[in-house]
Amino acid sequence: MLISINDVCFIFEILNPDESLPDFVRAAKASKISRIDMGRNMAVKFLEDLKKVDQSGLRNKAHKRLAILLEELEEAVAEMPVGEKHPAMKAFEEELQGKNFSSHAELQEFIASRNADINERPQPDLGNLSASQLQRLFTQGWWQTGGPVKLSSDFSEAEAEAAPFINNMRLVLKSILARSGPKGLKATPTGNLPRSVVSDIAPGLMDPAGYDICEINSGKKVLNEIDLYSLYIQRNIALVANLVKLTNNHWQVTPRGQNFLQPGTAAELLVTLFATTFKSIALDNMDSYPPDDGFHYTIPYSLWRIANLSEGAEYAASELAGIVVHPETLRRGTQPAFKGAPYTLAERIAESRLFRPLSWFNCLEQVKNEKSFEDNYRVTGLAAKIYRTPNFPKP
User: Has domain 286-388 been given CATH number 1.10.10?
Assistant: First the structure.
């Protein structure tokens, strides 16, 4: 069950008004996670406890909110299958068997020692990263000084210029500049790029998935920016990366964007777009699948796994997802992507929000598979040059 972090805070405030929020809730809020995936056991426990709450002292707004939560929890408990305990909980219970603790303090000391050991112990299902290393990936990544990831532009300009994203972005920047007046280039009423720019870009657009190319070759007399998926998404990324800006409904290329049109800047541009895409963009907007904050939060782990794959190795999308997506994300998304689908929701989300964007950067090469419902992806080796974790083990 996906539940908003605000609702979780409300539940704990109702159940334990005199106590501070649990660490995992405060950590989720600090990481700006909007929703968490709640298992059946927790949903049952919350439902049982909330039904015992004395509602006579609640204000009308809190009373209504509690009623809605009770209804949602009842529906979720009824629909969620009774499954096995989480592997971590099963392992903990097995360790407790046969142990006798003389006091609560002794039990707490055992738990603290066990947790400290787990935090530093390599985890085979996590590529032999320890919990502490994994947490550093998630919370520091490449965006904090001293973080474990170093994004490098130490690769050739030719490699960078061959990336579809670089090709498309420079076409966008050049077209806007060429068509700009004193105020810039007038946007459409909805704030998109005008058809004139789309017409400039279409003949040279690179789209590894081929969807935009099919749209361009469909015979349509008019193409809008929104018709070309990769162009629309990449322009939004450029906006967040401060390469372009929209001022008074006019598109302008920023000084930063103009600088990236100069010779010798392609590698730096590629790394800039890479960092923006996988840290600052709401990747949920790339498809119609449900939002998954956990998937976005664990992307630094997935990128580390991809950067350590053998160059030239080729995988079906679902196979690649099984290798590089965090195990908890895979576990949460085991349901079919849609009724009768031969692949899971987690596998489809991974392809849409990670593998296809990586193909824009030439970190993965999308390979059409006419005999399958899904495409293959070939590792190019560029991810290993961009995404470096010098103090981490090899998976």
Answer: yes
Number of Cβ within a 10 Å radius of residue 377: 28
Helix, strand, coil abundance in the chain, percent, nearest 5:
55, 10, 35
pLDDT for res 22: 77
pTM, full prediction: 0.76
The whole-number pLDDT of residue 96 equals 78
Beta strands, E only, the chain: 2-4, 35-37, 150-151, 185-186, 244-247, 250-253, 314-316, 364-367, 376-379, 387-388
Domains of the chain, by residue range, sit at: 2-79, 157-272, 286-388
Q: What does the mean pLDDT of the chain come to?
A: 90
64-to-7, 69, 348 alpha-carbon distances in Å: 13, 9, 37
Q: Which two tokens stand for residue 98?
A: 């046969």
| Amino acid, single-letter form, for residue 225 | E
Strand, helix or coil at 112?
A: helix
- CA-to-CA dists, residue 256 to 161, 173, 252, 360, angstroms: 18, 11, 11, 21
Mean predicted confidence (pLDDT) in 142-169: 97
Q: Mind listing the pLDDT tens digit for each residue in 192-220?
A: 999 999 999 999 999 999 999 999 999 88
CA atoms within 13 Å, Cβ hemisphere of 246: 15
